[in-house]
Design goal:
With about 90 residues, this protein is α+β, with helices and mostly antiparallel strands. The chain has one domain: Immunoglobulin-like (Sandwich). Helices cover about 20% and strands about 55% of the residues. The protein has 1 helix and 8 strands. The strands form 2 sheets. Strands 4-1-7-8 form a 4-stranded mixed β-sheet, with no helix packed on it. The protein has a 4-stranded antiparallel β-sheet with strand order 3-2-5-6, with no helix packed on it. The radius of gyration is 17 Å and the shape is elongated.
């Protein structure tokens, strides 16, 4: 019985990291579709935000933070962030 509980505990502990990612809710005020380079967990990725719309996107990986490279500089976004995009720049909203 103790082994079963221990095994389930370890599976849940390590399983959480396997499914981690960065989920972003956004509003793109620009009519342009923006595709930004992203650094996460030492890997380079891309994320695309559709123009003139609100939506959500997920950056897959094993972390809960990512660095998005914009023309206004690098922005660190965490899981469940809410952002606004205007003129290709990212601003956090509440």
């Amino acid at each position: 019985m103790k082994r079963t509980i221990l095994a389930l505990g370890l599976v849940s502990l390590f399983g959480v990291n396997a499914f981690a990612s960065v989920y972003i809710k956004y509003y793109n005020k620009d009519s342009q579709v923006w595709t930004f380079k992203v650094k996460m967990d030492g890997q380079n990725k891309e994320v695309t935000f559709n123009g003139s719309t609100s939506g959500a996107t997920t950056i897959g990986g094993s972390g809960t933070k990512a660095i998005v490279e914009t023309k206004c500089g690098n922005v660190e976004v965490a899981n469940d962030s809410k952002i606004e995009i205007k003129d290709g720049c990212i601003k956090f909203v509440k």
